[in-house]
Design goal:
Elements: H1 3-21, H2 23-30, H3 39-49, H4 56-70, E1 73-74, E2 79-85, E3 93-99, E4 103-112, E5 119-127, E6 136-143, E7 149-152, E8 158-166, E9 172-182, E10 196-198, E11 203-204, E12 209-210, E13 214-217, E14 223-225, E15 230-237, E16 243-249, E17 254-259, E18 261-264, E19 271-272, E20 277-281, E21 293-300, E22 304-306, H5 309-312, E23 332-335, E24 339-342, E25 351-355, E26 360-367, E27 370-374, E28 380-384, E29 388-390, E30 396-399, E31 407-408, E32 416-418, E33 425-432, E34 435-439, E35 445-449
Parallel strand pairs: 1-3
Antiparallel strand pairs: 2-9, 2-26, 3-8, 4-7, 4-9, 5-6, 5-8, 10-13, 11-12, 13-21, 14-20, 15-16, 15-19, 16-17, 17-21, 18-20, 21-22, 23-26, 23-29, 24-25, 26-27, 27-28, 30-33, 31-32, 33-34, 34-35
Helix pairs in contact: 2-3
Length: about 450
C-alpha cells in the first residue's frame, strides 16, 4: 500500500476518532433543540455548534442530503424497500412520487442498528426555477426522528420527494414503506369506483352545464355512507338533487354532497363518523328517469366543485415481499449476463443503461424481485435479482503490464491502493467501461485500466 493511501486512512481514522469523541457534545446540543427547525436541521445545527460542521464526514453528510433530492428515484406505490446505510459512507436516499389531491400518503420506516440511531424522514415539493437554474425544494412535512412515520394529504396534484437519511457514524439496516390511499371512504356500501358510470365534468343538458360529481349506480335502498367524520349541515328535498344531504368535513375544509336519495336517515346538525349511514340510494330529483344511483360531489369554499374520483378511489395496498438476498446490501456484485438498468422496479420502466456481462455494481437495497444498485460512476437504478452474481470468483486472469497502471481505489480515480510488479498475475473480477476490477496476488482489490478496451458508453 502506498504512502498516500496510508496517509488518507490515517486522516480518516483521526477524523472518526474526533467525531466519536465529540458525540457527547452533539447530544448536549441536541438537548436544546429549536422547535422551529426540523429534526434534520437541528442535527445540522448540533454538528455546527459542536465544532464539527467543517469536518470531511460532516460536509459529505450535508452534500449527500442535497444530492439525494436531485437524483431521487421515481417509484410507484405500494412500495417496500429493504436497504442498508454503512457507517463509513454518509448517505441519503430519496424517492419521487406523484400524488393527486384527494389521496393520502403514508410513509413509515423501521430501523435496525447496533446502537440507537437517529433517522431523518422528510417530505419535499420540488419547485422548478423559471430561469433554468437547479430546482429548489420546499419541505412540506416529515417525521420525528423517533416516530419515523407520517401521513400527508396534498392540497394540489404534483410530484413530491421523500428523503431518508441516518445520522453520522451509524450502520443502519432499514425498510421503508410508502402507500397511497383514498383520503375518503367510499360512499356506497359494498361498492367501489367500478360502479361509477358518469364522471366529473361530463357535459349535461346539451352542453349548457357540466356534471359536478360522480354517479355511483347501486340497487335502490343500498346504504349511503359518510365518507369522513363531519357534521350534517343540510338535509333538504327539492331541486336537481331531490332528497339530498350536505356534510361538512372540517378537517379538510370540504362540503360533501349526497343526492338523489330514496330516504334521508340523518338530520341537520348531527355529528357523523366515517361509515355511518346517511340515507339510501334512490333516483329522486332529476334522476327520476334513470336507474337508482348516488350523485356524490365534493366542494371547497372559494373553489367550487372538485373531481371526487381520487378522494374515493382505493389503490392497491400490499407491496411485494422481498425476494432477493438482503445479505448482499452494501456489497459489490457483477452481472451474470447482459441486462438492463431500469429507472424503477418494473420491466416496463424506462431503461437507464444496458449492462454487459460482468459489469460491476454495488447493491444498495432490495424491492420485491429487484435490487436497487449503484454503478461505479454513481448512476443508480434497478436490476432484476437473477441478473447478478457474486464477484469473488475470477472470470479470467491477466498478466500485469505497465499499461495497466497502479491498482486504484475507483475507476479513473487518483488514489492508488497498491503498486504492482510487471509480470504478476491479476485476477479479473469484473469491469466497468474501460476499467477492470481486479484482485492482486496479495488480495488487494481495486481498479486498473484495460489497455485493450476503448471507452464505451456504459458497461
Amino acid at each position: 500500500m502506498n504512502q498516500e493511501h496510508t496517509k488518507l486512512q490515517t486522516l480518516t481514522l483521526v477524523g472518526l476518532v474526533a467525531l466519536f469523541a465529540s458525540c457527547s457534545r452533539i447530544e448536549e446540543v441536541l438537548e436544546s433543540i429549536q422547535p422551529d427547525l426540523t429534526p434534520h436541521e437541528n442535527y445540522s445545527k448540533a454538528l455546527e455548534r459542536a465544532g464539527l460542521a467543517e469536518s470531511a464526514l460532516a460536509r459529505a453528510w450535508q452534500e449527500a442530503s442535497g444530492t439525494a433530492l436531485d437524483v431521487a428515484l421515481t417509484i410507484e406505490t405500494p412500495y417496500l424497500e429493504f436497504g442498508y446505510f454503512a457507517a463509513e459512507r454518509p448517505e441519503a436516499i430519496a424517492y419521487r412520487i406523484d400524488l393527486k389531491r384527494g389521496q393520502s400518503l403514508f410513509v413509515s420506516v423501521e430501523v435496525e442498528s447496533e446502537e440507537p440511531a437517529l433517522v431523518f424522514l422528510d417530505l419535499f415539493r420540488p419547485i422548478a426555477a423559471s430561469d433554468g437554474s437547479p430546482d429548489q425544494y420546499q419541505r412540506i412535512t416529515g417525521a420525528d426522528s423517533n416516530a419515523r412515520r407520517f401521513e400527508f394529504e396534498p392540497s394540489r396534484d404534483g410530484e413530491y420527494i421523500i428523503r431518508l437519511q441516518p445520522e453520522l457514524l451509524h450502520s443502519v439496516r432499514f425498510n421503508i414503506r410508502l402507500q397511497k390511499t383514498a383520503s375518503l371512504a367510499f360512499p356506497v356500501q359494498d361498492h367501489d369506483t367500478g360502479a361509477i358510470r358518469s364522471g366529473f365534468g361530463v357535459a349535461r343538458d346539451g352542453g349548457r352545464r357540466s356534471h359536478h360529481g360522480v354517479d355511483i349506480f347501486a340497487p335502490r335502498g343500498t346504504p349511503v355512507l359518510a365518507v369522513s367524520d363531519g357534521t350534517v349541515s343540510r338535509v333538504r328535498t327539492g331541486g336537481l338533487g331531490g332528497r339530498h344531504i350536505w356534510v361538512r368535513d372540517t378537517k379538510r375544509g370540504l362540503s360533501l354532497y349526497y343526492a338523489h336519495l330514496d330516504r334521508q336517515l340523518a338530520h341537520t346538525g348531527q355529528r357523523v363518523r366515517a361509515g355511518d349511514t346517511l340515507g339510501l340510494v334512490g333516483n329522486t330529483g332529476n334522476a327520476r328517469t334513470t336507474p337508482p344511483h348516488l350523485h356524490f360531489g365534493v366542494y371547497r369554499r372559494g373553489e367550487g366543485p372538485i373531481d371526487p374520483f381520487s378522494y374515493i378511489h382505493e389503490l392497491p395496498q400490499e407491496p411485494p415481499e422481498l425476494q432477493v438476498d438482503s445479505g448482499a446490501f452494501g456489497e459489490w456484485f457483477r452481472t451474470g449476463r447482459e441486462g438492463n438498468l431500469r429507472s424503477s422496479h418494473s420491466a416496463r420502466s424506462p431503461k437507464l443503461a444496458t449492462l454487459t456481462r460482468h459489469a460491476m455494481l454495488r447493491i444498495r437495497a432490495g424491492v420485491g424481485r429487484w435490487y436497487r444498485v449503484q454503478l461505479p460512476d454513481g448512476l443508480t437504478g434497478f436490476v432484476i435479482g437473477d441478473l447478478i452474481e457474486a464477484a469473488e470468483k475470477p472470470v479470467s486472469e491477466v498478466i500485469a503490464e505497465a499499461s495497466h497502471g497502479p491498482i486504484m481505489e475507483q475507476p479513473g480515480g487518483f488514489l492508488a491502493v497498491t503498486t504492482q510488479e510487471a509480470g504478476g498475475k491479476l485476477s479479473i473480477l469484473g469491469r466497468f467501461k474501460e476499467y477492470l476490477r481486479v484482485r492482486s496476488p496479495t488480495g488487494v482489490v481495486g481498479w486498473v485500466r484495460d489497455p485493450t478496451t476503448r471507452r464505451r458508453s456504459v458497461d
